[in-house]
Give the backbone structure.
Amino acid sequence: MTFLTNLTLGKKITLLTALGLLFGVGVFSSLGMRAVNQATETMLQEQLTTARLVAGYVDEALDRAVTELRNTSQAVDLGGTSARFAIQMESLQDTYDRLSMHTHGIYLVNADANIVWSWPEDQKLVGADLSGYPSVTLAISTGKLAISGLVSAPLTNAPVVFLISPVKQVKQENRSVLVAAIDLAQSSIGGFVQPIRLGNTGYVEIVDQNGVVVTRTDPGPRLSPFEKSDHSGRFAALIAAGNPARGVCHTCHEEQRVERKDVLAFVPLTRASWGAVIRQSEDEALAPARDLRQSLFLFGAGLVTVALLFVIVTTRDVGSRIRMLTAASQQIAEGDLVTPVTTRGKDEVGILAQTLDGMRTKLKTSYGELEQKTKELTSLLSVSEIMTSTFDLQRLLDEVVAKAVEVIPGADCGALFLQDSEHGGVVLQCAVNLDKNAISRSFFGKDSSAGGPPRDIKEIASAFLKCDALRSRAQSSICAEVSHGNRNLGSLVMVSFQDKQAFSESDRRILQAIADYIAIAIERSQLTKEAEEARALREADRLRSQFISSVSHELRTPLTLIKGYSTSLLRQDVSWDTQTQKEFLQIIDEKTDELRDLIDKLLQSAKLEAGALRLEKEPVLISRVAWKIVEDSALRAKNHKLRVEFPPSFPVVEADVRCVEQILRNLMQNAVKYSPNGGEIVISGEQRDNMVVVSVSDQGIGIAPEHRDKIFERFYRVDSLSTRGIPGSGLGLSITKGHVEAHGGQVWVESEVGKGSKFYFTLPIDRSVAGKEKLEHKVTT
């Protein structure tokens, strides 16, 4: 920085401009290279997308062909007649024709890999040995479907692909396979790939696991039978690994070097050990990126040249005039406000000179105004600190009025009058250095000489000064209106007992600003109150909407099913068998139970909300209630293992048996619903001090920590991907909590996401009942 400090302005401008240009060129070059690289990457990604499209189509075509072959092979009866077999093979060939798959031949091959029958029938093929085809021997040995690479057809040596499917056999050792020889060059696969064009040099290849080209599009090299790709080793490795690849390939990884440089995109097939290859010459594929790079270079060079010429021309003129302005500013800094600043030109530097001269003429007069503004701002700052110190409106108003008396020099006392929105008229809200009670009696009392307080807020100041408490003492006063928008809220009055000219215009501005602060505080207090009321209304509206949505959904689903099955049973044009009628009626019965449960929950929730729940307590053995719940839930929890675990000495509790049953039923229903994959559900109990602890555990989806404190609220349901398809009203757990707390107990949950939940509730033990009741029970596990 010392080096720059010692340079003249012109040299600094030149140097910094040059550095800026170099930086700009660097950034421009970096962005240009990034754009080129992005264009290259986009081109490679497009090539890979095309390869995926081709691979997907080939996979789909092979899958259809293999499916038809498998269906036929499973239907082949080796003990049937030759005519029946011919009919089956002719049907398979017709199916392949409809799929645009050209069939070279269909062979039935025995366990020794010998052809025992062919279609079309050719006695020369009977007995031909196919053990030299690895895919055939593999299918015979494993009994699984297989797709070969490009192989020679028996006798004709035509390039075909074998689709192989095992024939259904009674004995494992007599396994046979059905082989379909497909000529892909004349099939739909070749017909789909052939029209694909990628510029003047791009083409598509389908290669098998040995690197042999199955088919190739124009303008690629003419395809010879069983021709290997020039990247056969690389493609075979990618097919074996199942990995796609794309990039610029110079064939440096092949033993046989090829001079042509290509851009390749390779995607392996999933149905067969093949791969789809997109190839295009590097010169054609990357030509747009190279043109863009060259254009960016030429544009950057031109930009630098123009910028340098502009710097040289402007530096000389600007430098001389800035030196002149520097000298003038030094004079002003030294206190010379008389000498004018020389102006020249109407450009930015000339305007700067004119502005500097105008600043010189106004600077002196601004000193006094600045001091006055500083005083006012300091006063308002002290008031603003009070505004943020408390939310108690009365305390805030008292402190603000006291601060106003303090910061306004001529003020001896002050008062704040506000409109009474409830009763009408005006109230004395605050008084400083005045007897508030005396002012209230004199100003608002029945014996007021002013004839009572004015109802118009604008008449407050004059009426206030005429009251008995101030009439003889007040010398001068100022008044500021407290208003917000177009609404008058009150008046702030300052009174001087010493001087009839105690207040200046500055004092009036400060007082009005303080009055505006008071209006803001009053409005803020009102808005806070309204916000709290609005928040309560929104919460009530949200709960009502949530209730309506939940209940309507829970009612609509079973009602729709009941309506649908009832209508079906009543149709006169359809005759249902007894089993179907029974199934329909069972579904209607189940959905009716769901409606009854929902209505019971709504009624119980309403009772709990209104505090109208009445308990009819009696001695209850919770283990028996638990067994009843398990028996009732068995049909709806066929995928679950239900267990009850209570010790033989588990005590009797004094409780409402209907509430206990509802608690366990709600927890059991939740456990079944939220463990859709089944698992174990356990109802267990133990005694702790003067209470019993009962738990219901499952191995379901679990509950996230942020939801555990809210699930016992009315209508609350966990909203996640794993719970959106599970029906529910959000009432069960809130009812459970209400019943438990009505008995003097507590309810809580322990859960881990993905591993399950365990709900607990406690009930107090009545020792007198436990001592009197001697219940014998037997727990069956």
About this structure: The two ends are 89 Å apart (CA to CA). Confidence is low (pLDDT under 50) at residues 252-256, 446-451, 770-781.
